[in-house]
Design brief:
There is one protein chain. This protein is mostly beta strands. About 5% of the residues lie in helices and about 45% in strands. The chain has a four-stranded antiparallel beta sheet, with no helix packed on it. A four-stranded antiparallel beta sheet has the order 2-3-4-5, with no helix packed on it. It has a four-stranded antiparallel beta sheet with strand order 6-7-8-9, with no helix packed on it. The protein is globular and about 65 Å long.
Length: about 375
């Protein structure tokens, strides 16, 4: 067969093939299949200790955020603007930090609480600073935070750098060093982007994985969770139960008007149920507090592997908590906010052995 005949045959075969749509490259990839929820065999719980929740004292008013590092449980009370350190084994109070000033290690309007590899950190709206503390409350470092009122999450992966999450349309994660110098910006490739304006529709829970340079993100809405690694970038994984896209309603109110400035307060509202209510990380596992599970709203914990995103199993909580944390030995800590009692409850799955108390640190050697 001559070259011209072969060319004609090739053109005829190509013409017979079905043509692909012109915008095929612009279409998002198909969503990953969602696994079915499987229940762990030990969804019964035993209570280890309680502080404030079943007593008549006013130790806590509105405990909204928890973090754990080692043997220290930190509680941010939004009602009193205090940060309290508790012993994870007994619930004994170790120290209380009060809102009092703008100096080093001080704060006035604490907004976010997060753990660090050796302690905890507080983001303060009044001073626009992120301050890291050791387990004993000593100051490690502080950094000035740009656009502090827009920060939706903080993830501190080591003592040299941290991530700030901003609720923009691309769910931006901005990387800083501990001096406040901006290093890089990463974006999460969500498979199902929202059409709503940036803001509350893109809010999420953020946690750091202790054994990896990884941040874990679970959005309030949608059907995915994600990880951001300093080397491999961002990856997304499907949730067991996807939530519907939020239907946001935005309104504005003028608070103050002058010849030079106008102060406007914006309010975003949505009656869409949250896909997730919270997130905790233990070792190589991400534990997402599902918000719209059919079995029980707000009481379901879904377990995923950090490395692959594979779903493992689920547990049912005995009640719905305002905030959750988990220690290295598998003890859960939940913040309770109710009309009659506010406090912290420590509880464990029924088949988990009670943790052994840590030995007291050796006293420093005496000087001669």
């Amino acid at each position: 067969m001559s070259f011209i005949n072969r060319l004609i045959c090739s053109l005829l075969l190509l013409a017979a093939l079905p043509s692909a749509p012109l915008d095929a490259e612009r279409q998002p990839p198909p969503p990953s299949p969602r696994p079915k929820r499987v229940w762990a065999h030990d969804s019964l719980w035993t209570r280890a200790w309680t502080t404030g929740a079943d007593s008549h004292n006013d130790r806590f008013v509105e405990p909204r955020q928890l973090s754990i590092t080692g043997n220290l449980l930190m509680v941010l009370d939004m009602g009193t603007r205090e940060v309290t350190g508790l012993d994870v084994t007994s619930g004994r109070e170790r120290f209380v930090m009060k809102a009092r000033g703008r100096g080093p290690g001080e704060f006035q309007r604490p907004a976010l609480l997060t753990s660090t590899p050796t302690g905890f950190a507080i983001l303060d709206h009044a001073t626009a600073r992120l301050t890291a503390f050791r387990e004993n409350g000593a100051v490690q470092w502080d950094a000035v935070v740009p656009a502090v009122f827009s920060v939706d999450g903080v993830c501190i992966i080591d003592e040299k750098q941290f991530f700030l999450k901003y609720p923009r349309g691309d769910s931006s994660f901005v990387q800083f060093d501990t001096s406040g110098r901006r290093l890089a910006t990463q974006h999460i490739p969500w498979q199902q982007p929202f059409n709503e304006p940036p803001g509350f529709a893109f809010s999420a829970s953020t946690r750091a994985a202790a054994t990896r340079n990884t941040c874990v993100i679970s959005p309030r809405f949608g059907g995915e969770w994600a990880t951001i690694d300093t080397k491999r970038g961002a990856r997304t994984f499907p949730l067991v139960s996807a939530g519907p896209p939020p239907k946001m309603q935005y309104s504005e109110k003028v608070l103050d008007r002058s010849l030079k400035t106008v102060t406007i307060e914006g309010l975003q509202q949505s009656d869409t149920p949250h896909a997730t209510r919270g997130l905790i990380v233990r070792g190589d596992t991400a534990i997402v507090n599902a918000g719209n599970a059919k079995e029980s709203e707000g009481r379901v914990l879904d377990y995923y592997l950090l490395e692959t995103g594979r779903y493992i199993h689920s547990r049912m909580l005995p009640t719905s908590f305002a905030a959750l944390a988990i220690s290295e030995d598998g003890t859960f800590f939940g913040a309770v906010i109710g009309p009659h009692a506010q406090g912290i409850i420590a509880l464990r799955p029924a088949n988990t052995p009670a943790p052994r108390p840590r030995p007291a640190p050796a006293p420093p050697p005496k000087r001669r």
